[in-house]
User: Fold these one by one.
Assistant:
Number 1:
Amino acid sequence: MEFRYPNGKKFKSTAKSKQFSEKKLQREAISHGKRGMTLEEDLNETNQYYLDVGKAVIHKKPTPVQIVNVDYPKRSAAVIKEAYFKQASTTDYNGVYQGFYIDFEAKETRNKQSFPLQNFHDHQLSHMEQVEKHNGIAFVIIRFSLTEEIFLLPYQSLEKYWTRMKQGGRKSMTKEEIQQNGYQISLGIQPRIDYLTIVDHLCK
Amino acid sequence: MEFRYPNGKKFKSTAKSKQFSEKKLQREAISHGKRGMTLEEDLNETNQYYLDVGKAVIHKKPTPVQIVNVDYPKRSAAVIKEAYFKQASTTDYNGVYQGFYIDFEAKETRNKQSFPLQNFHDHQLSHMEQVEKHNGIAFVIIRFSLTEEIFLLPYQSLEKYWTRMKQGGRKSMTKEEIQQNGYQISLGIQPRIDYLTIVDHLCK
């Protein structure tokens, strides 16, 4: 629909309304820069590979959205006209591998020597705790974007540093702590991030 | 922002834009009437109960939405201005129970004597097949809304009727077939739909 001013000139909305791309959204919506993008793509490709070769069924959950207003135009699909990003109450990825329930969150940082714990949330930590209690396998995959180093850190280790922070300690894990408690994953071609080889160790 | 006609009269959009409630959306977006609502609420309550008493960690996945256009107003949260409902590529619910990976879809019908198979989709069936192959437990929970009868039907049985349809047979399962191959779940107070008691049988 077009609006015109009394002088006939077309009205142009001044509200910034950008064409949306998943990439852009990710970059802009996440408050810490470019974090979160490439890692997600790599993991999606990895999971697709695992699915294709029949190794595991692991998916990323859809982004949770709070829908406020929906249009139902005649003869066409419902259009969501107003919605907001919601904070997830669980982790982003889960699925099944050799009968094991797998559950993890993936995050990146542009820091060089430490990983900020503010990347995670209280309810994600409690979710992972619950998962472990029910004999699932919970962990985080973290990436230092600048050096492209990727680590799998089991929930138990994350929890240790989380508790330290809650007790007034530092708000991040040092890279050294991650190296000592986690498992480095080298970037591959197919799959890109072969985290299930690490999960094999955790299962034992 | 307000628009005014040259005569000063306020412009009112004629596009139907309704205040959104999850309930309404569910009722209107789903093509088969009121199906899908109460069952979802009951299952969410049931899963919350399981979580609270430490019995299992099972969640409904967020509704998948294709985001097309996002506004980034200064000083406030990003607003999704255009988005569409996407068909889910997996089932709606998954989680962990006693170390078992649990995966299911839940659907209702207002039919009395049969359950239409069009409630499910090819990719959901293949997803459940994959889950079973990896030693997860896959099933559907179906509800005859008019009589409030709820059944858990294991994937293997659903697959039988799905194949029959694909081979040119009937497009639904009869209630009798469901009674013979599934397990009826009686409605309770807490939890509302105690499907894990049935899952206990399936694990053995």
Number 2:
Amino acid sequence: MKRFAAVVAYDGTDFFGFQVQPNQRTVQGVIEDALFKIHKQEVRTDAAGRTDTGVHGYGQVVAFNSSLDRLSAETMKDALNANLPADVYVRKVHEVGKDFSPRFHAKRRIYHYYILNTPEPDLFKRRYTWWFPYQLDIEKMRQGAKFLIGEHDFAAFRTGKDDRTTIRTITSIRILRLKKDVILFRVEGISFLRRMVRNIVGALVRVGTESLSPETVKLILESKDRSKLPSSAPPQGLVLYKVLFNEFET
Amino acid sequence: MKRFAAVVAYDGTDFFGFQVQPNQRTVQGVIEDALFKIHKQEVRTDAAGRTDTGVHGYGQVVAFNSSLDRLSAETMKDALNANLPADVYVRKVHEVGKDFSPRFHAKRRIYHYYILNTPEPDLFKRRYTWWFPYQLDIEKMRQGAKFLIGEHDFAAFRTGKDDRTTIRTITSIRILRLKKDVILFRVEGISFLRRMVRNIVGALVRVGTESLSPETVKLILESKDRSKLPSSAPPQGLVLYKVLFNEFET
């Protein structure tokens, strides 16, 4: 028995999120279908993170056991890509130890959120950006983001109630203007609550338009009350960009 | 009665080409549906060019008459966008003279063709580029392209037989490497035969891989025989980028 970790990119547009669900097209579902075709038996997978409907993956990490001991990591990559639909692509496969857990061994998770900040929409970017035509003050958003760095109770920035503790650590938030009209939020942390990145971006954008002051971000955080939170940023701008492990390079 | 010309962008992925066809989702069909909702009656449209299934538009020009004399061009633009699906966007609307024909008054048509020239595919660009992982010699492709500039009988570069004359004029072909891994073919001419741009790109790519010499392009052209032609480039890399008129700025 071998254990593999696959680094997986996917276009979330046509998926009902990452996690397997009955009668829904999910990313994990099509990966397990591909593994079934390769192994002629069911193969279960674990992943570094779940992503919601419409959210994309570039560096999702998915681990599974394989009875096909003769297959190298490289051959497994090719076999998976031969059996996956056009909107999922396995970028790398690594052989890992028997106990490897993408969820618990992840050292750091990096999400990217892209805003298209132009007066007119761009059709060709609509699936991968949030089109936001109003002016955004990057410096103000950076000031607001500073209050979120470190270990905090992020209860106010969660959606749903499935997490036992709402204490999380954000190690950095970088906000960059790329090519003049695209704004990238690069949010790095150890782990995240459900919708936490989209909720953070939603709040920071209100700071960027000056409908909230940067200090309000601190008040929202301290309130631990999500009813205080401005609305969430839409899913299509978000990508699970990279998950860092000690075991291998992603 | 007013006459308008709309500059239209569309993502060709989910359309069965531009031209109206019964029981198919076409770009012209959804534009005429939007015009029907606005006018409460059928409105027919003329366009500068047809595009095949999967081909995109950025600067397609569509003209129509409107009985809504009170609507300004700007209001017509907003009304159209309010009634169009997410994959079609009207970038501009101009009021034009009664006799304006986007097909016959077009002075110049510019197509862009994008190749993604990377060892690994990129999911997020798959709808808008041709992924071609092999090395391409840009200089050789430019040498091959030179034989196509000017007025020629392009019978060898057509697909189908619906054109009376196969003589066309190409005014320029520029081949540029953008951001290292994207190659842009910018093909400018007065008008084009069916699939002509994709057939040209298909041939030039074979020159780029050195499976054909640049001079073979000249021999193919002179043969006037499309059975001599290498296969066509796939549709998703092609965009009808701009159509130039004397009447207005596109």
